[in-house]
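Input (structure):
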């Protein structure tokens, strides 16, 4: 397991500390703490609405936290705009295999290199993605809208690799795929890790995600509930009961598992509409 590998950097690549977030007046994340080390695959699991996507949107600054901080490579990125986060080496694969349907596979990949000015550098990056996903090379001139769901997911991942990110963040990479493509996508994720990248993913397929991951975080109602290695979480009866749909419930969690009880309130401004899609900032709270 890479987490225990003595050759690994002891400083986390990514840290999330005491993160609170709200949509309008409704707080959805409470005091979230997470760490991702270089070379790991880390999964965030939890039921619908637990706040998994909001955590990764906060890292990308698609959603802005109202308290707490996020660092990447020892640099605070909490208030960095999304394109700045991408430029530092974080690739993002959003939920839903979002591709430009009327553009070719190759053109879709080039869209992922928006920060790359040189045509030649873009071509080299496209070629590297094709080495990783030979099936995309075979279909390079095909319209993305005509790819299968699994191929579109490969394309979405490939596009996130165009800027050669250190950390790749994926939201539900296997959602809606056939079992065959779920296998293929997870094999690709392991290959990306073996190629030296670090992965943070949200997955509804919790059993599959944990068995592929070095470590995991289980969220409940916007709070850290359990954390441990993938194996520890899979073996924990309480986790099995709550997140994997089976097993015996423990009255208390083992000591090695972190359980978080009390939420920290965000000071939600009353002027925001409850339906507001953007987060609000309470600047003074960021540490
Ligand atoms: N744009 C938004 N505006 C208002 N509330 C939102 C918005 N996005 C998410 N929420 C709410 O925030 C909470 C956390 O949502 P989030 O999408 O982070 O959960 P999730 O764990 O990713 O769920 P899922 O498994 O359904 O993808 C939910 O209660 C959700 O309804
Ligand atoms: Mg989600």
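Output (sequence):
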């Amino acid at each position: 397991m890479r987490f225990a590998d003595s050759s690994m950097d002891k400083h986390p690549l990514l840290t999330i500390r005491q993160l609170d977030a709200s949509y309008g007046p409704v707080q959805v994340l409470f005091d979230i703490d997470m760490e991702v080390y270089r070379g790991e695959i880390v999964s965030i699991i939890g039921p619908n609405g637990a706040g998994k996507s909001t955590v990764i949107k906060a890292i990308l600054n698609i959603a802005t936290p109202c308290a707490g901080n996020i660092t990447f490579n020892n640099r605070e990125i909490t208030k960095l705009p999304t394109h700045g986060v991408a430029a530092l080496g974080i690739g993002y694969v959003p939920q839903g295999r979002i591709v430009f349907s009327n553009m070719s596979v190759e053109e879709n990949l080039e869209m992922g290199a928006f920060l790359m000015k040189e045509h030649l550098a873009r071509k080299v990056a496209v070629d590297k993605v094709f080495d990783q996903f030979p099936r995309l090379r075979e279909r390079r001139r095909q319209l993305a809208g005509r790819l299968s769901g699994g191929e579109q997911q490969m394309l979405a991942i490939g596009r996130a690799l165009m800027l050669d990110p250190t950390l790749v963040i994926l939201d539900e990479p296997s959602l809606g795929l056939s079992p065959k493509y779920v296998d293929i996508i997870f094999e690709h994720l392991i290959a990306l890790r073996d190629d030296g990248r670090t992965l943070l993913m949200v997955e509804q397929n919790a059993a599959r995600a944990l068995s592929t991951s070095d470590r995991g975080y289980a969220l409940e109602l916007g709070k850290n509930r359990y954390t441990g290695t993938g194996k520890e979480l899979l073996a924990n009866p309480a986790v099995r009961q709550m997140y994997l749909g089976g097993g015996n419930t423990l009255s208390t969690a083992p000591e090695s598992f972190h359980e978080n009880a009390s939420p920290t309130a965000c000071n939600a401004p009353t002027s925001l509409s409850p339906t507001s899609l953007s987060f609000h900032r309470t600047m003074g709270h960021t540490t």
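Notes: The chain has one domain: 2-285. The first strand starts at residue 14 and ends at 23.
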